[in-house]
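Because discrete structure vocabularies remain unfamiliar, we turn briefly to a single example record, giving the amino acid sequence and backbone structure tokens:
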Amino acid sequence: MPSRFIFSLRFSSKVLAKLAKLSVAMIFFMTLFRINLFFLSAFQRIEDLNFTEVIQAFVAGVRFDILVFGFLLIPIYFLLLIQAISERWPRGMFYFYKTYFALVWLIVCALSYVDFFFYSHHGSRMRFQEYSSWTPEFTKELMGTLQMNQVLIFTIITLVLLALGFMAIRGLKFGDWKDEYSPNQGGKMEVALRIVLPLLLITLAARGTVEPHHLALEHSEVSNNKALNEMGLNAVWCFDK
């Protein structure tokens, strides 16, 4: 008779895969934020536009976005592993995972929105120093320096992406771990792969690189134009810098 543990572990892999797909969708949405930042603001600051450097900035941006979600998936991985080992899958934990990602996405959208106006005015991302002294009046003042159509377009885009993220979260269905029951009892190799491989991939994502040192500011420096380099970063990564 196959062990209940292997069924529980398979289910944890299934849940993690769904949350990883959700993360990929959110990384795509963050790229849409960056595209709008480029056309609404960065484009005006780039002299002698170099298409190759622009592409490199977007590629660097995806790497920084992956890094953010790599870090966010680390606690999720260990919680799911604990559930797999304990063979306990209360419905409340699925609501917790959805709430976790909903809060994450709300923070991503809020920081990206506030950061847009700072970037449009200064050509650089907000850092911890700016966030620590931030007030709504500060953002309102920066809004006044932009054309109304820029403010309206980015506001609408932010609300649409926020709604799309929430819809993706709401649409998550995890099923029941007992659905994984099958005559296939698996083996030690399957157990090792299901435990080690996700951890390896998440750790790699959180590092952002296979190099000895993790992804850092210099990885965004693809040109001599500061505004283009800063566009490759994201508001979440810059928050504690």
Notes: Residues 4-45 form the longest helix (42 residues). The CA atoms of residues 161 and 167 lie 10 Å apart. The radius of gyration is 21 Å.
